[in-house]
Amino acid sequence: MQDNAFRILKERGFIYQTTGDEELEKLLGSRKVTCYIGFDATADSLHVGSLVPIMSLVHMQRCGHRPIALLGGGTTLVGDPSGRTEMRQMLTLDQIHQFGTGIRNQFARYIDFKEGRALMLNNADWLVPLRYIEFLRDIGVHFSVNRMLTAESVKSRLETGLSFIEFNYMLLQAYDFFVLARDYDCLLQMGGQDQWGNIVAGSDLTRRMISKQVYGMTFPLITTSSGEKFGKSAGNAVWLDPKRTSPYDYYQYWRNTDDRDVEKYLGLFTLLPIEEVQRLPGENINRAKEILAYEATLLTHGREHAVQAYTASVRQFGAGDPDRKVRTSSDILKTDTGDTSNLPAITLPADGLAKGIWVVRLFVEAGLCASNGEARRLIKQGGAYINDDPVQDESMNLVEKDLKDGAVLLRAGKKRYKRVVFE
After folding, report:
1. Cα separation of 212 and 121, whole Å?
2. Which residue has the higher pLDDT, 388 or 403?
């Protein structure tokens, strides 16, 4: 075996709770283990809130183990009540299949599925064909309602209301663990700390059904030091799909990390050696943020997009360490010379310039403001810029003479940019 995956996950901040630290460390240090994490297909893309489990599978594979990324084609039909105050939107099988296709493509950026080194499975394959009465007789008999009511995912919903279909979610997730242990020799299930009750239920069911010892591990709930929900930018989710969140905006999300969170995020969301993770923030915090942003973007979008996002950011805000006093293994290029073409952009028809385009509407069209009212407030507060000049008048119309090389650069506040190209 290579390095012990348990120790690596522990020192990088992944582990919140396990079914037994000593047993799990010994297991992961002595043999190749198949492990799994489930991902329900509630959208056509995952977001950064899924990165902790994804990166844990990355580390498991790098240490010689076999990860299973389990697409919840079946469990998504039910809806996980964990972390929810109300029932999830019910999706059709066709919708879930479509969402699953996008998620599969994203996993391939992080995990090597060649030659069986990792598996992508769909629990719809064994959950959808289940016969309900037989399932209740064979599986439901092993579950105590009293015990299920103590699970955090259930208990937190009792006051606001928990549907019967959601109450069954624990049985289905436990059944997943049993099937994977039986058919794929999967010995470890991992997930967020809110999944602890479901993981323990699966471990118990597997022991009862096939007398097999399996293990569980949960990850801590990630929040920012300022108390904000991790994975949100300007109130919106930060997606792994570049069509939903551009590589530039993705880079900027990490670049704007709170100083107090930089070391934690370097440990969780990059593959830098732990020595660099611990050293960089103390030497130059802004440079450490650049490295965090670059490495995170590199993993999700590839080297070309990471370089483009970095150089575009340096053009707008300058480098965190122009003298390069901090030396790391990160492959970050020299400061860009001023090209803005790598900034996120939209294209609008040029014929609208003849009559002029209302600046308020322009900021809405560019996605920098959600409404005309929000754009007006931005202008009144002095936060709207065109080509780095503040917009003084909300009744202003953009005309052809305002363009530079057929485009304008819009800015909302200090760090939100959009390039508008007219064709």
Report:
1. 21
2. 403
